[in-house]
Amino acid sequence: MNIYTRTGDKGQTSVIGGRVSKNHAQVEAYGTIDELNCFVGQAISSLPAERFEDLREHLTEIQNELFDCGSDLAFANPEGKQYKVTGDMITRLEEWIDRYDAENPDITRFILPGGTMTASLLHVCRTVCRRAERRVVTLAEQQPIHEEARAYLNRLSDFFFVAARTANAREGVQDVEYIRSAEVFRKKS
After folding, report:
1. CATH class of the region 17-177
2. Which helix (H) or strand (E) holds 20?
3. Which one, of 8, 29, 35, lies nearest residue 19 by Cα?
């Protein structure tokens, strides 16, 4: 099998059931999800093994689900298709968010990306995930999409935020507070 096909040399690419321009909103959406997946891989490779086996497993599962998400957005005609992203995946993300957040100290101010290398990489994942979500919103304005894919990305960015804070907490490193921020969050009850 050849890696190169030459079929995209004139600015078109294949989607499931058709071809579109390489700058089409659909390609931007699943391409940004692919970019996110690369950053998730980088974050996984930064994790110290002994304290982060659970997070490593969850991030690896997320990588597979990001492929599912991209696939769900790659149909030329998405109506009536069998989708891979499900509401159960979103619910499970919420459970993980709650679990990791329970390890984190209270937050009262906005925080800056930083602390440990792993936390910094997870914040990169968060921001790329938000961009992917924006690309999916743009796509949804142009054609029908699988709504659960958009909801999954929305929840996933929250997961990355909480996971970044957990990475700092487990390493005994404080989050970097935005010093010009007033107290904007309530303490956990």
Report:
1. mainly alpha
2. strand 18-21
3. 8
Write out the chain's pLDDT in tens, 189 residues.
777 777 666 676 666 667 766 677 888 999 999 999 999 999 999 998 788 999 999 999 999 999 999 999 988 776 777 899 999 999 999 999 999 999 999 988 899 999 999 999 999 999 999 999 999 999 999 998 999 999 999 999 999 999 999 999 999 999 998 988 778 776 666
Specify the pairing of strand 12-15 against strand 176-177. unpaired
For the chain, give every domain's residue range.
17-177
- Angle at 125 (CA atoms; ends 106, 76), nearest 5 degrees: 130
> Which residues are within 8 A (CB) of 84 and not within 5 positions of it... i.e. 6 or more apart?
68, 69, 71, 72
